[in-house]
Amino acid sequence: MKAYKVAIFIFSIIACLAAIAALFPEEGITAGEITLNFPSLSEFTSEEQVPEQPELTPEELLAIRAMQMRQEQEEGFINFFRENEAAIHFPADDSAYHYLDPLFEALDGADSTLVRIVHYGDSQIEEDRISNMLRRRLQEQFGGQGVGIVPLYQSVQSQTIGQSCSYEPTRYSVFWLSSFRRKGSRRYGPMGQLAVINSNINLSIVPRTKVTGFYSAHYFNTLTLITAPQNTITAGLKGKRQTINSDGSNLQFTEFQLQDSTTTVNLSLAGAGDVYGVMMTGKTGVNIDNMPMRGCSGTIFSGIDSQQLKAYFAYTNTRLIIMQFGGNSMPYLKTQKAIDNYAATIGEQVRYMQRQAPNAQILFIGPSDMTTRIQGKMQTYTWLEDVDNALMKEVTDAGAAYWSLFKAMGGKGAMAQWVRSGLAGSDYIHFTRKGATEVGNMLSNALMTGYDYYKWRQREFAPIPKAQPQVNTLSIDSNSYTK
Length: 483
Description:
Blueprint lengths: L2 H21 L5 E3 L2 E3 L4 H5 L12 H26 L17 H8 L5 E8 L9 H12 L5 E3 L10 E5 L4 E4 L19 E5 L3 E7 L12 E8 L4 E6 L2 E5 L7 E11 L2 E17 L3 E8 L13 H10 L2 E7 L11 H21 L4 E5 L5 E4 L2 E4 L3 H14 L3 E3 L1 H4 L5 H7 L12 H26 L16 E2 L4 E2 L1
Parallel strand pairs: 3-14, 3-15, 15-16, 16-19
Antiparallel strand pairs: 1-2, 4-13, 5-8, 6-7, 7-13, 8-13, 9-12, 9-13, 10-11, 10-13, 17-18, 20-21
Helix pairs in contact: 5-11, 7-8
């Protein structure tokens, strides 16, 4: 059909419809119980009234743009937490991204009080590795001095301070290394280990700066001796002697006040009893305890006396407990059932620590990438990613935070690259000091991103003025209309 015929046909239809609309009764045509209606011509030709767009002042426009920027910034934080492999995973509830707020609030008040972070872990954190960099970063930002707690006798010397004892005392440990003995009771103290003295012993502490250089951790003005309540021990320091008598508490804390510039001390102990550790701190700021447990899988915390843990966490104002485990279990986890059982046990340990430290948040760090020989090639342990995912689910279900070191360092096959870069050792398991420093930086960055989000939410944003839309309305009068 030709175009002009199509046009004539279309216009004819429109004309017919217009005629029907003009002639059709407004009340419609009733046939029995049925009423037929047809739209009137005015309904086709009338213009819909729409509200006029309000005219905004420059201040209102700026406020709207500020709110848009706020929304974009918040989306940036949330996307980081959800999508970045190096981000901390939070408990799955409505306040997930606010989980660490109590810690950040405490850090903001660290200029007037001492805030403690306790870092438990396996051999990956020996020598004060990882903890050292986290401590350095936080003390630079929030102040603080000292390395926190150390055992009376140190099997593996720290890279931060050096210790020497006049003799090696008998030692007991809940994680039971070959150099330790088991103890009949559960009173292992906050480090999960203790030293038993039965004669005079001298402890010397000196800074080790070859690796780290002098920084805040080497200086302290308070030395605290932690002992069992039933001891009879006399402690001497800087010419002052003090006899420690039991006061019936679960842990005895004996403080010695020193000059702010103290870096080296000689502590002498006489008598007999259990010594749980020596603390070196400032009076304010942040302090981080490095508590390595070589060979441990993180399943031993419920084997430590709950009252001793409660006493330590309360006395030190512990606001964050880091638990870094999983690597020592990897060679033995070869079925999904074994993985689920291990993850469930870790969940129980997290809940146990939550009960002992109600004012502290808990961050669990899973195993790093680990490589073993599979079909003649060095490859990531087959079940490692499944272990990491199972741990993350159990920990977050328990209401704690989880940091996947495995994903943060690059996932499957990352360890081989770290070895080639000098960041990990030839065993394809442990980090070198350089690698541990890198991990400490990544952990610090993950925590500080959470802190930046916390501080961002504390900012005051000007409210957006609500402009009232103007709408044209018709007011019907007998002879006129008004707009």
